[in-house]
Design brief:
heterodimer, A: about 325 residues, mainly alpha, ABC transporter involved in vitamin B12 uptake, BtuC, two-stranded antiparallel sheet, two-stranded antiparallel ribbon, B: about 325 residues, 4 strands
């Protein structure tokens, strides 16, 4: 074997490594940079803040990852968050538990409508969920009469602001969701079905898989997770703010999924990668802000990161 | 693929052979104008002269003109099998740059934003056509980048640039010709050119072919990458035109405008019968889709008691219902 060939192979290996572990590598590099140059970065308070801030996006992104694995997309997640948030003050009189359950049920309902339109009516996911993106926030604003409502429920407050063994509850929820989703996708028949549908829907149907039921479930899960994120955001803010909660979160969630290595073409999914994708985008924003760069710069840097991340991973998604 | 078999010409679907496929195609395309006619009729009956007046129709036309410019480009993009999410942000960026550059005169105020938008389109096109990254991702990134740039130029949104009154530029947005505002005429002219381009030119045929099957188009020797680049440049430049006109009309450039415009444009295109899967669609359908969205918005505004939140509920539900009806009808005829 010639030297040139070995050099070539090494380069291929580096590319492969970048493809497989690009997000993790980027996070490590960013952490090292921050440890070296950002004052007060490596404090428990700051790290905890970053995790708490990324929690809603991470939760929504896990649901989005499942939807994207079926070759779909869910644009309605932000509006679903708003809907769950708007319902809480209406039912908080019955206690925090029932109010939260109703919020989550609303999320499932939105998901079922999405899933029904996609699975049974055969409407393209982007259009079906676009309809609910527009209508969902409208319904939320109608419920709330467009107002922000402050909430003083102690249980809800605890959900938003307390921690177990030093770990904030919202972060625990992220871990719980990710573990369940990871097991469902890797070990359960459900995961196989989702990936089969995303890989080739017609073939999955011909193979006798319950395509419609699975799609319905996936969108319902995405809606429910969005509602969870809406509840957590509301609890943390101590207020239900349907005008702004979850605004444009669909874009952050899709970004997290894609940066995490899940191709939009379906048939493949990476749950841990998705969490890391969300964390990476959060850390980039935090780093830039802590170095006094304005929000506009943060957006432009994020844009470049998205393109670079997907370009690097492009080999795998086409393979 | 059946989509490729669909005749791409405006008149080609004809009644020569009523195969179920062409019928489904016809229904998909004709449903938007039919619904538009019904809605116009119903609006005139219910609201009378308040709705069916020259003044109100003029307002609807002006409101539609910006969306029509964007949706014309979006139709090309979607027919080619892609999507362009960056248009809402580009609209804002173009408006901000117009207002910023208006200090140097009217010509730079038009050329600077259009040039920058063309660069965005070129970047989109190169990344999609040459680097082969998914259009959704590329244009999502430019959505972020363009919005960031718009805010950066206007000092994080704290500075609103004002366009001096009574210049050539403001006349571009505010003058009237035969009772209609200039943006309306401009949008109609662009639309007409788009019709010819998509249906009567080699470029248009290539766009349809690429959307139908990129592999086949490549094997036929079509310059796939070049056509795609041109499609995205056109989409960005047309959005840039809309941004210039909006800024000229309002005499200012706001970095916050246009959020969600990409979704509105996509909705108009889809309501007009163009399939997101590419390879089939029509610009005349898009015109009907644009008008339909704007007429509905106007009608909701006519009901003074209905608050703004219901508008969103109605718009969203309406989009779903139209698409649902289209797919139902098309499927029934197919059986």
């Amino acid at each position: 074997m010639t030297v040139q060939a070995i050099g070539h192979r090494e380069r291929a290996d580096v590319l492969k490594l970048l493809e497989a572990a690009g997000v993790y590598l980027a996070i490590v590099l960013l952490m090292l940079f921050n440890l070296a140059f950002t004052p007060h970065f490596a404090t428990v308070t700051n790290l905890r803040l970053q995790l708490v801030q990324v929690a809603p996006v991470a939760i929504v992104a896990v649901g989005m990852a499942l939807v994207i694995a079926t070759e779909g997309i869910d644009l309605s997640v932000g509006s679903t968050m708003a809907l769950a948030a708007a319902l809480i003050p209406l039912y908080i009189g019955y206690g925090a538990g029932p109010a939260i359950v109703i919020g989550l049920l609303a999320g499932v309902a939105v998901g079922l409508v999405n899933g029904g339109l996609v699975a049974f009516a055969g409407i393209q996911p982007i259009i079906a969920t676009l309809g609910l993106l527009v209508a969902g926030r409208g319904v939320a604003l109608v419920f709330a009469n467009g107002r922000l409502v402050e909430l003083f429920d102690p249980t809800l407050g605890a959900l938003g602001n307390s921690a177990v063994l030093g770990v904030p509850i919202s972060v625990l929820v992220v871990f719980g969701v990710a573990v369940v989703a990871g097991i469902a996708m890797r070990r359960a028949a459900f995961g196989r079905r989702v990936l089969a549908i995303g890989g080739n829907r017609a073939a999955a149907a011909l193979a006798g898989l319950p395509v419609k039921r699975t799609l319905l479930t996936v969108y319902a899960v995405s809606g429910c997770l969005a509602a969870v994120a809406g509840v957590l955001s509301t609890a943390r803010q101590g207020a239900s703010d349907p005008s702004f909660v979850g605004l444009l979160i669909e874009l952050s969630a899709i970004t997290a999924v894609v940066v995490g290595g899940t191709p939009l073409s379906g048939g493949r999914v990476r749950i841990v990668g998705t969490l890391m994708g969300a964390l990476l985008m959060q850390l980039i924003t935090a780093t830039l802000i802590q170095h006094n760069l304005p929000d506009s710069t943060a957006r432009m840097v994020q844009a470049v990161i998205i393109v670079v991340a997907v370009y690097v991973q492009r080999g795998r998604s086409r393979a | 693929m059946t989509t490729v078999a669909n005749p791409p010409t405006e008149s080609g679907h004809g009644a020569r052979r009523l195969s179920p496929d062409s019928l489904a195609f016809w229904i998909r395309r004709a449903s938007a104008p039919v619904v538009l006619a019904i809605v116009l009729l119903a609006g005139s009956v219910v609201f009378g002269g308040r709705f069916a007046s020259a003044l109100n129709f003029g307002n609807i036309a002006l409101d539609s003109s910006y969306l029509l410019l964007i949706a014309t480009g979006m139709t090309l993009v979607i027919v080619s099998g892609g999507i362009d999410l960056s248009v809402g942000s580009l609209l804002a960026l173009s408006g901000v740059l117009t207002a910023y550059a208006s200090r140097w005169g009217s010509l730079p105020a038009v050329l600077v934003p259009l040039g920058v938008c063309a660069l965005f389109g070129l970047a989109n096109g190169l990344l999609i056509g040459r680097a082969r990254i998914a259009p959704f991702i590329v244009t999502l990134a430019s959505l972020l980048f363009a919005r960031g740039l718009a805010f950066a130029v206007s000092n994080e949104g704290n500075h609103v640039y004002i366009i001096p009154a009574k210049t050539v530029l403001t006349r571009l947005g505010q003058a009237r010709l035969l009772g209609l505002a200039t943006p309306v005429w401009f949008a109609l002219a662009v639309f007409a050119i788009g019709l010819v381009l998509l249906n009567r030119s080699r470029f248009g045929q290539a766009v349809f072919a690429i959307g139908g099957s990129e592999e086949a188009a490549e094997l036929m020797g079509l310059p796939v990458a070049r056509v795609k680049i041109l499609v995205y440049v056109l989409s960005s430049v047309l959005t840039g035109c809309a941004g210039v006109l909006v800024a000229a009309q309002t005499q200012s450039g706001l970095p916050t405008i246009g959020e969600g415009r990409e979704l509105e444009a996509i909705a108009a295109v889809v309501i007009g019968g163009t399939l997101l899967s590419g390879g089939t669609g029509s610009l005349s359908g898009t015109l009907a889709g644009v008008l339909l969205l704007k007429v509905i918005q106007n009608l909701i505004n006519q009901v003074g008691t209905l608050n703004a939140y219901y508008q969103q509920v109605v718009s969203g539900t309406f989009l779903i219902v139209v698409v649902l009806i289209q797919s139902r009808l098309a499927r029934r005829r197919l059986r």
